[in-house]
Amino acid sequence: MGKSEQASAGNETEITLGVLEAVEENSAVTQRSVASELGIALGLTNAYLKRCIKKGLIKVNQIPPNRYAYYLTPKGFSEKSRLTAEYLSSSFTFFRRARTQCEGILGECEAKGWNRIALVGDGDFAEIATLCAREFDLLLVGVLDDAASSSGKAGLPVATDLKELGEIDAAVITDLNDPQSAFERVRGRLPDARVLAPDMLRIRRNGAGGNMSAGK
Questions:
Q1: Half-sphere exposure (Cβ direction) of 5: Cα atoms closer than 13 Å
Q2: Side by side, which strands form the sheet with 116-120?
Q3: Run of H or E including 127
């Protein structure tokens, strides 16, 4: 696949993901508002919505007066998670963006005196966070991941339960495959303000009204 084809595929993934996210956030969303949010033409938005409906990712119901309500189907939720992982892993600027956002989060932790940090999700993002942590006066205590082993891809101890990692000041979401599930897994175990996530993971907190890297 040439560079132009890769860019086209990446753009298609990003638009489809944006449409699914917009519907998930607000079932009463309009095609015009989606087009405005994504910065694309209204006709293109209409085409992507129709494609998602045809694929069974979105269900549409007519509501009076002459309006439509859109809902993500279970298949749509699954596809949204898959596309999120695909978008992140195929992004040409993934490493640079990931490093910048990890540095911002770890810098915030250091400033607030949160010194013992757990990563949630093993893999490439956890490796980048591990590299960034060397620039701060912090201790990464380990990685929370279902595939427990003595050390994960990031070279840290891996645990299946947060309690196994001992005392923790904050957790950073580094799961690329299903970051939203990783976030839900940890919330409640720590105050919401101490469960942090890079913006590029597109995690949503109920009632937060959009992406949040950290509570203030």
A1: 2
A2: 158-159, 139-144, 116-120, 170-173, 195-196
A3: helix 124-133
Q: What is the pLDDT of residues 53-91, one digit of tens each?
A: 999 999 988 877 678 889 999 999 999 988 887 776 666
Q: Is 105 in contact with 196 (CB distance < 8 Å)?
A: yes
Of all helices (H) and strands (E), which one includes residue 151?
Answer: none
DSSP 63-119: ETTTEEEEEE-HHHHHHHHHHHHHHHHH-TTHHHHHHHHHHHHHHHHHHTT--EEEE
Helix (H) or strand (E) holding 159: strand 158-159
Q: Which domains does the chain have, with CATH numbers?
A: 3-90 (1.10.10.10), 94-201 (3.40.50.720)
Can you give the pTM of this predicted structure?
0.62
**How far does CA 95 lie from the centroid of its chain?**
15
For residue 207, pLDDT over 80 is answered with no
Confidence of residue 140 (pLDDT cuts 50, 70, 90): very high
Residue 208 carries which side chain, given as an amino acid letter?
A: A
Rounded Cα gap, residues 70 and 49, in angstroms: 9
| Arithmetic mean of pLDDT over the chain | 84
